[in-house]
Amino acid sequence: MKTPFFVFLFFLLFSKTAFAQENPIVTFQQERIHLNQHGMKVLGSWAGVNLITNGILRANTTTGSNRYFYEMNIYWNVVNGTLAGLGLLQNKNQDYSNSGVLLSLEEQHAIEKTFLINSGLDVAYVMTGVYLLEKSKNSTDQEERLKGYGQSVILQGGFLLLFDGIMYGVHRSHYTKNKRIFQHIIFTGNQLGLVWKF
After folding, report:
1. CA atoms 83, 86, 89, 90: torsion sign
2. How far, in Å, CA of 132 to CA of 50, rounded?
3. CA-based angle 62:64:66, to the nearest 5?
4. Residue 58: what pLDDT?
5. Most confident listed range (7-11, 43-47, 136-140, 183-187)
6. 195 φ, ψ (degrees, to nearest 5)
7. pLDDT digits 0-9 by tens, 142-153
8. 155 near 71, Cβ under 8 Å?
9. Which letter does DSSP use for residue 67 in this model?
10. Confidence band of 75 (pLDDT split at 50, 70, 90)
11. What is the number of alpha carbons within 13 Å of residue 176 lying toward its C-beta?
């Protein structure tokens, strides 16, 4: 009598695990989070290297535009490091074991939109850096500061433009590679679901 019960219990647990592992929406969400985690680690590493390197260089430089260049790099990467840390924490605490189709699509489009908008902002940062460099040429009392800050903003904005562009491309590619999942969506008027034909 006990044996059939344990066999049934084992089958039930195995079936639930197998279904969870094969749920394409959950897998899609987990892959998206994995891609984002890698991106945040890259951003965090960039911030860490910049903070250490520019901190040392700034401590040993008291004059000239380099002083302001190192200084702005430090400010910029405090923000980058904070954003990377918050991104990693957010990704770590997300559970998509019960993800729905609509939530998956919304979050996928939101992440793509975020990196696309950020890329536009990055272009503005680079242009601001160019403006500061040009302004430094006509300044008599702020030449070194404007030059150093301008060079830093161009460097950091250029890195972020590259980073955000790659992250957008990676997430867009992830969606394109998996969009067949969403071709099986049906909406009955009351419910949204997936239909798989075998």
Report:
1. negative
2. 21
3. 85
4. 95
5. 43-47
6. -125, 125
7. 999 999 999 999
8. no
9. H
10. very high
11. 7
Angle (CA) 114-116-119 rounded to 5° is 110
| Closest of 162, 157, 163, 155 to residue 54, by C-alpha | 155
Q: Is 141 exposed, middle or buried (0-12, 13-18, 19+ CB in 10 A)?
A: exposed
- pLDDT (mean) for 40-65: 95
Pairing of strands 185-187, 192-194: antiparallel
Nearest-angstrom CA–CA distance, 126 and 76:
13
Tokens representing residue 170 in the block: 């990676």
Alpha-carbon gap, residue 182 to 194, rounded angstroms: 8
* Secondary structure class of 192 (helix, strand, coil): strand
Q: What is the pLDDT of residues 23-38, one digit of tens each?
A: 788 888 889 999 999 9
Q: What whole-number distance in Å separates Cα of residue 23 and Cα of residue 128?
A: 46
